[in-house]
């Protein structure tokens, strides 16, 4: 038998070096043998599962046309060390998306910086959708045109618009303005909302509550917009991202709750405190690396294109329970279908 194996398979099955595990069973019970096998299997790379958090945020673009002073994803550390342009080439960004989809992620959110500054964003959205993922962008809205909304309807499911205040002076103080000086008007924001609804996209609104706007009341806007989700985030200090400016914007738990209490009638509001945010998002940086913020700073993996999704994920600190508690899982596919005509759904 040993000779036949050697001739047919060029393998000496009696050589223990050919095996990951060799167990001498003379003094072991079947249960003890099984335990050894299971423990060894758990150490193998193939056992390490992709996290069950099903959605991922791809911060594909560091450049931004606004200057939000509290921004907790500036990626200046990335730009100054390994990525001078602040983004991957188009072909590498596509490859990152392909690997993300192959790993089983169900929803991808394209963020920045400002993702609409990326000329190949429509191609990335298209590829992600064709690979079976629900697609979303997070944008400040300044470049959201009728042309973009019309051209991308087939592949883009959700649009999340960042709106922190309707007061021009507040937005300038925050930096939520073009080059930090030209805020978008109240009329402009209402117009964006109308356009998104007109084209049948799922609408989310993101608001970062901080020292400047925590007394603002956005109830009228939110009631008019009727978003599927209104995410209300407590401004987040992040070492290496907003150290130099965050002190002017930090708020206490009481101030955050003040804002929440003023909007408690809004049923679609999803509050996220600092603790809820940390470690509950699966994120990829502009260099194509997973990163987490669980420890109050960005912890980066090795590049996905270099080591693969599973190996990169092993070094991350993502918390599924936090993801579920903050309402991260919702019916993102069927919520979209409710916005479409019967003809579009059948397609």
From TrEMBL:
Database matches in NCBIfam families: viperin_w_prok (NF038283)
UniProt key word Metal-binding: yes
Annotated ranges, domain Radical SAM core: 48-271
A single GO BP: defense response to virus
Protein name as annotated: S-adenosylmethionine-dependent nucleotide dehydratase
Gene3D superfamilies attached to this UniProt entry: Aldolase class I, P-loop containing nucleotide triphosphate hydrolases
Keywords: 4Fe-4S, Antiviral defense, Iron, Iron-sulfur, Metal-binding, S-adenosyl-L-methionine
Signal peptide region: none
Keyword match 4Fe-4S: yes
GO molecular function: 4 iron, 4 sulfur cluster binding; catalytic activity; metal ion binding
Pfam family, one: Radical_SAM
Cofactors, names only: [4Fe-4S] cluster
């Amino acid at each position: 038998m040993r000779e036949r194996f050697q001739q047919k398979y060029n393998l000496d099955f009696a050589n223990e070096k050919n095996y990951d595990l060799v167990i001498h069973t003379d003094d072991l019970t079947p249960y003890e043998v099984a335990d050894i096998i299971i423990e060894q299997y758990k150490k193998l790379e193939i056992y390490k599962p992709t996290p069950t958090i099903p959605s991922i945020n791809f911060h594909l673009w560091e450049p931004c046309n606004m200057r939000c002073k509290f921004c907790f994803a500036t990626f200046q550390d990335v730009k100054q060390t390994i990525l001078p342009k602040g983004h991957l080439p188009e072909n590498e960004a596509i490859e990152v998306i392909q690997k993300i989809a192959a790993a089983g992620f169900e929803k991808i959110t394209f963020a920045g910086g400002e993702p609409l500054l990326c000329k190949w964003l429509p191609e990335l959205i298209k590829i992600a959708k064709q690979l079976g993922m629900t697609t979303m962008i997070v944008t400040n809205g300044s470049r959201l045109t009728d042309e973009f909304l019309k051209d991308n309807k087939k592949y883009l499911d959700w649009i999340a618009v960042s709106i922190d205040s309707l007061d021009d002076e507040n937005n300038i103080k925050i930096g939520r303005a073009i080059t930090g000086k030209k805020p978008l008007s109240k009329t402009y924001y209402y117009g964006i909302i109308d356009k998104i609804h007109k084209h049948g996209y799922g609408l989310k609104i993101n608001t970062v509550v901080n020292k400047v706007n925590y007394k603002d009341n956005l109830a009228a806007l939110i009631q008019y917009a009727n978003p599927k989700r209104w995410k209300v985030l407590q401004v987040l200090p992040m070492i290496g991202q907003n150290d130099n400016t965050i002190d002017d914007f930090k708020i206490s738990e009481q101030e955050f709750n003040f804002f929440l209490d003023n909007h408690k009638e809004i049923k679609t509001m999803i509050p996220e405190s600092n603790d809820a945010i940390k470690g509950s998002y699966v994120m990829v940086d502009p260099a194509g690396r997973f990163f987490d913020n669980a420890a109050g700073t960005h912890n980066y993996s090795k590049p996905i294109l270099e080591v693969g999704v599973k190996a990169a994920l092993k070094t991350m600190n993502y918390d599924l329970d936090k993801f579920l508690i903050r309402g991260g899982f919702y019916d993102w596919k069927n919520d979209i279908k409710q916005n479409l005509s019967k003809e579009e759904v059948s397609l």
